[in-house]
């Protein structure tokens, strides 16, 4: 049995965050473990309140879990505060002690909710960048890629510069910049460290108009993590995760006042 660990915030709607990650892991045949970084008060319209877990409790969750169970992959989502992020970074040192080979880490750099609510305080961005330096892949959307890299992503060249910055400057092994916020076809860019440089792969996307859908970014990154946990090469894990999310998006079902939820096999 392969195990994927989600380190993320709680979403009471189940459409995003830790709850969604665990649903994706199960749908893809991977056992899901979870460490909670924050509680949220939210519905399908907006995030009403964010309550970070005590940083020491986040660290204790990680240390106790990782001394007993070594995951085959880790997904990192919402970190909420600088102190929580620092304790996640500290807790992940247990991975090096527990495993004889590096455990792949997939990071969804959650900076804001779709309604604009900050989900990682600004002073925590530096720790997030340190974590990205340990990642097998980081999966920002266009606004997140722009914020983290400082590159204008209004052009393809700008997207490539942003992705290159995440790999060459911050140290990720790969970056998948998702194009859902772009007008027109939502093509994604996969940038991979190869041969001392960065190689770009533009991945064609299809605009699937289902209205507001909750949790697509969480689902994509957790699906990549599940693929890595099952031993898939990075590019294969990305391709299968994109197909999985597209399928779930086509069948998205309306619940609540505002959003649809992804429907998994």
Task: Please give a handful of descriptors for the protein shown.
265 residues, alpha/beta, UDP-N-acetylmuramoyl-L-alanine:D-glutamate ligase, 5-stranded parallel beta sheet, 3-stranded antiparallel beta sheet, 9 helices, 13 strands
Please give the domain count.
Answer: 1
CATH architecture designation: 3-Layer(aba) Sandwich
Radius of gyration: 17 Å
CATH class categorisation:
Alpha Beta
User: How would you describe the shape?
Assistant: globular
Query: Mind summarizing the main beta sheet?
Result: 5 strands, parallel
Number of E strands: 13
CATH level 3 topology: UDP-N-acetylmuramoyl-L-alanine:D-glutamate ligase
Uncertain regions spanning at least 5 consecutive residues: none
Protein structure class: alpha/beta
Mind sketching the topology for me?
Elements: E1 3-8, H1 17-27, E2 31-36, E3 38-42, E4 47-52, H2 55-68, E5 73-76, H3 82-91, H4 93-98, E6 105-107, H5 125-132, E7 137-138, H6 142-149, H7 156-169, E8 174-177, E9 188-194, E10 197-203, E11 213-214, H8 216-229, H9 234-250, E12 253-254, E13 260-261
Parallel strand pairs: 1-2, 1-5, 5-6, 6-7, 11-13
Antiparallel strand pairs: 3-4, 8-9, 9-10, 12-13
Describe this entry's structure for a reader.
The protein is α/β, with parallel strands linked by helices and 265 residues long. The chain has a single domain (3-261), classed as Ribokinase (UDP-N-acetylmuramoyl-L-alanine:D-glutamate ligase, 3-Layer(aba) Sandwich), CATH 3.40.1190.20. The chain is 38% helix and 21% strand. The protein has helices spanning 17-27, 55-68, 82-91, 93-98, 125-132, 142-149, 156-169, 216-229, 234-250; strands at residues 3-8, 31-36, 38-42, 47-52, 73-76, 105-107, 137-138, 174-177, 188-194, 197-203, 213-214, 253-254, 260-261. Strand 9 (188-194) and strand 10 (197-203) form a beta hairpin. The longest helix has 17 residues, at 234-250. The protein is globular and about 45 Å long.
